[in-house]
Write a structure and sequence with these properties.
The chain is α/β, with parallel strands linked by helices and 316 residues long. It has three domains: 3-85, Arc Repressor Mutant, subunit A, CATH 1.10.10; 91-162 and 268-313, D-Maltodextrin-Binding Protein, domain 2, CATH 3.40.190.10; 168-264, D-Maltodextrin-Binding Protein, domain 2. 43% of the residues lie in helices and 22% in strands. It has 13 helices and twelve strands. It has helices at 3-14, 19-26, 30-44, 61-88, 101-107, 109-118, 131-140, 185-188, 203-212, 226-234, 261-264, 281-290, 296-304; strands at 49-52, 55-59, 92-99, 121-128, 145-148, 158-166, 168-172, 193-196, 219-223, 239-243, 256-259, 267-274. Strands 4-3-5-12-6 form a five-stranded mixed beta sheet, sandwiched between helices. It has a five-stranded mixed beta sheet with strand order 9-8-10-7-11. The longest helix has 28 residues, at 61-88.
Amino acid sequence: MNFQQLRSVREAVRCGFNLTEVAHALHTSQPGVSRQIRELEEELGIELFVRAGKRLTGLTEPGAHVLPIIESILQGSHNLRTAGQEFVAQQSGALSIAATHSQARYALPGAVQEFRLQFPNVRLHLHQGSPQQVAQMLLSGQADVGIATEALAQYPELVALPCYRWTHAVVVPPRHPLLDGPLTLERLARHPLITYGAGFTGRSHIDEAFARQRIVPRIVLSAMDADVIKTYVELGMGVGIVASIAFEAERDTQLRAIDAGALFGINLTKLALRRGTYLRGYVYTLIESFAPTLKRRVVEQAMAAGPDVATADYDI
């Protein structure tokens, strides 16, 4: 038994049982992948995959039972290498962060700047995507740390920890009618709205608020990027609803913001890590810089806990 055999099995599942894609991912040939899988099956005395001719179509019952063990062995191997590197070069290495646009653009810069000053020899990689893409980057090992408001707590393979609470703001041009008088859902619904797409930056709270009042809002444009939303508000296409951190008075001089926390409630941004991953020391430094309540002791406690422990147990 060897690690290449285990990787072949894991990648076969990740690639939807397409051996051509597995061979590409592992930088080898398709016959080589098939041979590695067959040799492992012969050694274990079980068939791991259901086959249709030469094609793999799924996992057998023994294969489904064995897969988590294979994942654990490979994760342990990765952790072992990382632990060794930790002592060889404690001030250098790489750190990959996956975040939604709002987090990468508005919430992360201060923490990243502080981290770079403290660890100038660590190579930082910043990936942006939807909350689901952030989760997948964590699960695949492409990212070490993930930050988003939506979705991360839905994956038992991830440890999702609360970072900070925030509210939405309504953004309008100067002298807009909504600036006069109290902001209500009824008044807001009289205008065309521009806000985040489904699954982004607290959009679910916006939809739920209107639904509770049985109001159907007229959303004329949705986007994942607050800067895009503000641009179209400036063009007069409608009223924007964005994360309050996305409004910067010194930059957004052609807009005015109205706090909408009372309408849409409080949102909670979370930081996620893949369960069972070994974290180098400087990762804890970045996490605490971004979310001061997430000290190393708190993160280690959460990583050691089972997936049934709710993130509410680690309050902010």
